[in-house]
Description:
By secondary structure, this protein is mainly β. About 10% of the residues lie in helices and about 45% in strands. It is built from three helices and eleven strands. The chain has a six-stranded mixed beta sheet with strand order 8-1-2-11-10-9, with no helix packed on it. Strands 3-6-7-5-4 form a five-stranded mixed beta sheet. It is globular, with a radius of gyration of 17 Å. The N and C termini lie far apart (about 50 Å). Residues about 1-5 and about 10-20 have low confidence and may be disordered.
Amino acid sequence: MNTDLGRPGEPGLQAVMDQENKFLQFELDGEYYGVDILKVREINGLMDITAVPQTPLFMKGLINLRGKVVPVIDLRLKFGLPEYRYDERTSIIVIEIKSVHGQVQMGIVVDTVSEVVNIRAENIEPAPNFGARLKSDYIRGMAKAKGRVIIILDIDLILTDEELTFGA
């Protein structure tokens, strides 16, 4: 098979297959998830979160990040997982996502941050089809790395534009 199928000025198929993607790996309820490292702005331990009344349960509130107000969601609750008692390993990952308002910084609470992993493109499989009734378009794919499966998230699709207005 000829793997150099790129157009002039574009990488060939082999070059695309050889690409390594970097993901920040974290845990929720004993499962591993990954988010594109280019979306991550910083990782913090748990900090004071100011609750906002009349918001969904997964919207934990707002944090003051060096003078900037950043909305925070609990990813466990957004995914319908059981609530978790925060501890010293609980982290807030500050990410930058696209919305109708442009780029928005958002904090996501996770059980623990593991590491940055390099995953070759050929080790990422398309997201399985869960059927029309389950919303899973935020799952970019499933990766195999270090003997485990990592659910790769498209973080831009986790929240709807309506939910993002919480932080606007």
